[in-house]
Amino acid sequence: MIDIVRTMLVLTANPLRPDDWQKMRKRCQGRYLKRGHALTMKRIEWTTYAIAVAANLYVIRSLPESPFHHLLEPTYLASLSSIAVVLVLGASRFAARGRRIDRQIFALFLGGMPVVYAWAAVLRGDTLDLAVETVGILVFGGLAIVGYRRVPWLLGAGIVAHGLAWDAWHHGRSAFIADWYSMGCLIVDLGIGLYALARLTPRSRSLSSR
After folding, report:
1. Measured between alpha carbons, how far is 57 from 49 in angstroms, rounded to an integer?
2. Which residues are CB-neighbours of 194 under 8 A, at least 6 positions away?
3. How much is the pLDDT for 91?
4. How far apart, in whole angstroms, are the C-alpha atoms of residue 159 and residue 156?
5. Please, which residues have CB within 8 angstroms of residue 121's CB and are 6 or more apart in sequence?
6. Sign of the CA dihedral 143, 144, 147, 153?
7. Given this model, what pLDDT does residue 209 score?
8. Phi, psi (rounded to 5 degrees) for 203
9. Dist. CA 189–CA 79, nearest whole Å
10. Interatomic CA distance for residues 96 and 202, integer angstroms
11. Is pLDDT larger for residue 84 or for residue 205?
12. Tens-place pLDDT, residues 14-64
């Protein structure tokens, strides 16, 4: 309202030519379109965050036993860690440098997921299993580093890829990792990965202040 009154006073004191009116109209249209895009991106971010929360709650409810009884078991420990990740991501939305914090969390999450499989391979697998999981650490760890330092959206793409490729490939094929974990990890990866893509896309970062 104040902007409108100020504009009216300026126009009264300094009448505009037709070309000036057209420039002002385009400027106002661009401003409102930018605000509309920013609002849309925020809605997408909150929607994908809600999906990530729901995915984690579903997986926690689906655990065969309480994770607090298996704190040294990598699969149960990873399940608890995913809840902590979601809580920190939610809190970072209200931080002054929330997106920078998010990049760090997403990078740690992406780089840490294949470590769980490698840890399980050390406990219950053989040399070939450990070699395969070492490749996973190199691939997804590399994506985490590049995503954090250069291309943020790669973090979201890497997390989604870990679910659709790595988790799906292990499900029903690996004796050293429980099927409930590979399926649960796939669900969590999709939820957090979609949120990372919404949160770290160039358009989202340019239109939103947080």
Report:
1. 12
2. 48, 51, 52, 156, 160
3. 96
4. 5
5. 129, 130, 132, 133, 176, 177
6. positive
7. 46
8. -65, -40
9. 12
10. 18
11. 84
12. 555 556 545 555 565 555 445 655 778 889 999 999 999 999 999 999 999
Q: From CA 160, how far away is CA 153, in angstroms rounded?
A: 11
- Structure tokens given for 67: 């994770």
Residue whose structure tokens are 């340019």 = 206
pLDDT for res 39: 74
Length of the chain: 210
**Cβ-Cβ contacts under 8 Å for 81 (sequence gap 6 or more):** 112
Cα separations (Å) of 137 from 52, 53, 128, 144, 174? 23, 26, 14, 10, 17
The amino acid sitting at 132 is V
Asked whether 4 and 28 are in contact (CB, 8 A), the reply is no
What is the overall mean pLDDT for the chain? Answer: 86
For residue 168 the two structure tokens come to: 């799906």
Is the pTM higher than 0.85? The answer reads: no
- Euclidean distance between CA atoms 126 and 111, whole angstroms: 22
Measured at the alpha carbon of residue 106, what is the angle toward residues 164 and 152, in degrees to the nearest 5? 90
Cα 173–Cα 179–Cα 185 angle in degrees, nearest 5? 110
Token match 């793409």: residue?
157
Positive or negative CA dihedral for 148, 154, 160, 163?
negative
Both tokens of 26, joined, read: 């385009």
